[in-house]
Amino acid sequence: MYCTIGRSQDQNTYEVLTIAFYNTENLFDTRNDDFTFDDDRTPEGKDAWTEEKYHQKLKNIAKVISEIGIELSGNSPEIIGLCEIENYSVLEDLLNTTKLISKDYKIIHFDSPDRRGIDNALVYNPNIFKPIASKAIAVPIQNGDGKRRYTRDILVSTGTIQNEKFAFLVNHWPSRSGGEKASRNYRKSAALVNRKICDSLWAIDPSLKIINMGDFNDDPKNKNVKNILKTSENPNQFQFYNPMLKLYKKGIGSLAYRDNWNLFDQILVSGAMLNKDYKHFQYYKAGVFKKEYLITSKGQYKGYPFRSYGYNGYLGGYSDHFPVYLYLIKTKNPR
Fold first, then answer.
1. What pTM does this model have?
2. Among residues 182, 68, 57, 75, which one has the least CA distance to residue 128?
3. Which long-range contacts (CB under 8 A, 24 or more apart) does 126-129 make?
4. What percent of the chain has pLDDT above 70?
5. pLDDT tens track for 231-262
6. Is the dihedral of CA 31, 32, 38, 41 positive or negative?
7. With bands split at pLDDT 50, 70 and 90, how would you rate the model's confidence at 332?
8. How far apart are CA 153 and CA 137, in angstroms?
9. Contact 165, 158 (CB under 8 A)
10. According to the 3-state scheme, what is the secondary structure of 134-176?
């Protein structure tokens, strides 16, 4: 999709790509998996998770995905990172919904060792992104007693967009269960693995553009994101620019807890995507997707994300997170 950007006297026409990330809040099917703790999300479980509720959830998530980015690009996102996905079949059901079936999205997914059975995934437009290699990288973590703590893998996919080389990382770092300080080192472990992946990719190809997205369970200002991943306002090609930092400083968040907003959901771009000549795909701007229908309209949690389940049971909403997105743009017919 092409659009014009700029003042009337010096408008240029650009090709626009939308990259999005969405924590879907437990997108589970209704079947009981004997190998994971998914019992709550079954018809007999605590959540009474029926086929009717499951298919409503699919429709809700599909509606959101179909609308991210359309204001500028006119299209649904070309690439979407997803987390809190139970399995591959759930992704197939999602992409077969009325809102998404015509998009012809393809799936990259790996089962993770997370005890609840939640995974990361990358959904992409095959006419835009051409994957070359994809894999899941484990995040080794130990509890205080020395036993392994199982968490989500980091999904890594390399490929091309119009012959430009890209890598996409999809993260879902360990939660803040037990408190931010008590759980900080778990996320530090994930950050170190993430940074090692990026360094390894750049050692092979220094020109590679990396888009690093996910629910980091840390804000843009936290050390695990800022220092270990190496974000900077003026990054070199082996550092990241985090557009979510400016949003965070303005008080914009993607989830709320005890009347405080966090921006755990972030998309980082490597320094090579900040060139302003736009002869190749470059970063343009980012945002939190916060349509009115995604916001709780009344009650104690008015203004919070309108989620599927709350403290009082089933709500029929979307997720406890808002999606985030960014645009990449490239001059039409660059010379």
1. 0.96
2. 75
3. 128/17, 128/78, 128/79, 128/161, 128/162, 129/78, 129/79, 129/159, 129/160, 129/161, 129/166
4. 96
5. 999 999 999 999 999 999 999 999 999 889 99
6. positive
7. confident
8. 5
9. yes
10. EEEECCCCECCCCCECCCCCEEEEEEEECCEEEEEEEEECCCC
